[in-house]
Specification:
Length: 128
């Protein structure tokens, strides 16, 4: 993946209305079924930062994509910094991550993990 411009690929349509139209999404979302699946190691795929980038890049059915990688990199970096705490180890004087990150999987696909109840929609008032 070029650090600036992301190459395009043939459109693929995944579940949930997600369209894979560039090499970034293809690499992140198509697993071993792409030409660039070896770009990330298994160890890197277990990193929290990888999962943050994956979710930003995946977007959704109404996602407006960028042709440049920079906005994705900057957004992933910002979210990661907001969610992960670090502190200096008093013995080594090196920074260490102190946050614990969990990935939640459902036990049964028919039961949603997070029900859609209690959603608050904000409405803007326009005075005129």
């Amino acid at each position: 993946i070029n650090a600036e411009y992301m190459g395009k690929c043939m459109d693929r349509y995944l579940d949930g209305g997600v369209t894979v139209a560039d090499r970034l999404r293809e690499t992140l979302m198509c697993g071993d079924d792409c030409d660039h699946c070896e770009l990330f190691t298994d160890e890197e795929k277990n990193e929290f930062l990888y999962h943050v980038l994956w979710r930003i890049a995946a977007g959704g059915a109404l996602c407006q994509w960028e042709d440049d990688f920079t906005p994705y990199r900057d957004a992933a970096r910002g979210i990661y910094k907001d969610l992960v705490g670090v502190q200096k180890n008093p013995l080594t004087q090196e920074l260490e991550a102190v946050s614990v990150v969990y990935q939640v999987h459902g036990l049964d696909a028919s039961v949603p993990l997070f029900a859609r109840c209690g959603v608050v929609r904000a409405r803007a008032r326009v005075s005129g």
